[in-house]
Amino acid sequence: MVIKKIAVLFSGTGSNMEKIVKEVHKKTFNGTTLEIAVLICNNPNAKGIEKAKKYGLETTIIDHTRFESREDFDLVLVDTIKQSGAELTVLAGFMRILTPYFTKNIKAINLHPSLLPLFKGAHAIEESFASDMKVGGVTVHYVNEELDGGNIIAQKAFEKTDNMTLESFEETIHSIEHTLLPQTIIKILTQKE
Ligand code: GAR
After folding, report:
1. For the segment 115-154, what is each residue's pLDDT rounded down to a tens digit?
2. What's the rounded Cα separation, in Å, for the pair 20 and 7?
3. Does 112 qualify as catalytic in the annotation?
4. Which residues pair with 89 in a beta bridge?
5. pLDDT digits (tens, 9 = 90+) for 6-41
6. Considering the entire predicted model, what is its pTM?
7. First-to-final CA distance of the chain
8. Which of 180, 51, 56, 159 is nearest to 113 (CA)?
9. Which atom of ligand 1 lies closest to the CA of 173?
10. Which of 23, 24, 111, 178 to mutate to test the pocket of ligand 1 (most atoms within 8 A of CB)?
């Protein structure tokens, strides 16, 4: 049996991390079993930490405020991921800008709540809702040294209807994310050549 390990990084609520735990962790697809090797959070107060405990999973906390520079933080982050044996790292609501040291050493994918390359950065949901675009969407992409700029792996759009509020727009995004991210992880790690 083939086992492939992933690292999952989050910063807050952790709803996407929870979906990965439920849909991917210790599940077998095409003869390959996927396993979360390590959960990492940069925020000691993140709600996701308690969520993970419900499933018997401990989170490794690497509090970014305790480091003098992004590079110092990334040194520990990369080391923790390498030690876990994860071959793919998933940024599931991980709200830190990563340095080239991270991007050169770690194969990672990121979940972003807009149709990239539009609305990069930390306010994608608000900005895409406020724009005059008639669609919103979600992207999963490889992480490279450019913020939200790596190759796109999966994308899903939805219609922005006139009666949508920011809240319902955001809910639609999250419900798409909760399917698209697990599906993409499974596809990357288990699809036959
Ligand atoms: C998600 O909407 C994700 O797309 C976004 O953070 C949220 C995390 O939610 N990520 C970014 O904006 C990255 N730039 P969660 O903690 O409930 O999974």
Report:
1. 999 999 999 999 999 999 999 999 999 999 999 999 999 9
2. 11
3. yes
4. 7, 108
5. 999 999 999 999 999 999 999 999 999 999 999 999
6. 0.97
7. 17
8. 180
9. 2
10. 111
Rounded (10°) CA dihedral 171, 119, 157, 175: -20
Task: Give residues with Cβ within 8 angstroms of 48, minimum separation 6.
Answer: 10, 11, 12, 13, 14, 15, 17, 18, 41, 59, 93
CATH topology of domain 2-190: Rossmann fold (3.40.50)
CB of 94 within 8 A of CB of 11? yes
193 Cα to the center of ligand 1, angstroms: 31
* Token pair recorded at residue 77: 């982050």
The residue ranges of every structural domain in the chain are 2-190
